[in-house]
Write a structure and sequence with these properties.
Strands 1, 2, 3, 4, 5, 6, 7 and 11 form an 8-stranded mixed sheet that branches. A 5-stranded mixed sheet has the order 8-9-10-12-13, with no helix packed on it. It is globular. The C terminus is likely disordered. The chain has one domain: 4-Layer Sandwich (Metallo-beta-lactamase, Chain A), CATH 3.60.15. With 232 residues, the chain is an alpha/beta fold.
Length: 232
Amino acid sequence: MKEKEKDIFEQTTKFNTGIKLYMFQTGSIKTKLKHIKMNQGEEPYEIPVSWFLIKHPEGDVIIDGGMPIEAALDKHKHWGDVIEAYDPVMKVSEWCRDMVKTVNTNPEDVKYVIQTHLHLDHSGAIGHFPNATHITQKLEYDYAYNPDWFSQPAYVKADFDKPNIRWKFLQGRKTDFYDVYGDGVIKIIFTPHLEESMSVTLWSVVTLQTWLKVVFPMRLVFIRKQNCLPFR
């Protein structure tokens, strides 16, 4: 346990002060309260779908990517019956591949796409950044192909079952605190959510650029100067 704490609470003086974190939103999902809190009402409930871009000297990093472009082009075809419970509201211009350009990142500049998990509202970046390696848990990747019946609607196989994708699979607790660039700035922790997902820690003096008034990022933790600020 002490070793893990040592991994988490490193001194931050060595970290790059030029790291920038951008927070974006690919629309939202309209649903009802009962689909979020079991059987608790028919009231409308809207979920902002957020994702993140980290600008790093070694190459930019996307965390998830929000909803895929298909949710804006033809949500009925791509999500099918899922939209009866979870209805995506997304503009084509909100797709992550286009949004990165608004902060002077070219798709070719993205070196890693970190997939905390592979749900249909987190998969917008997969396969759309030509130089990127995609990082996820091997357990989550395997589960996405054969989920339990209650999780099946959350996965769209076409989002992640694509040719010519470079994957790097992490191995649960064995690869805990995986350091993406080896400089202590971006680390990945195995934190099972519904299935076998993971969280990301960002260690740095960060410049946070936000384009939203209110967002609810998922499975992301920022740790700085021994203070932990979780978002859920």
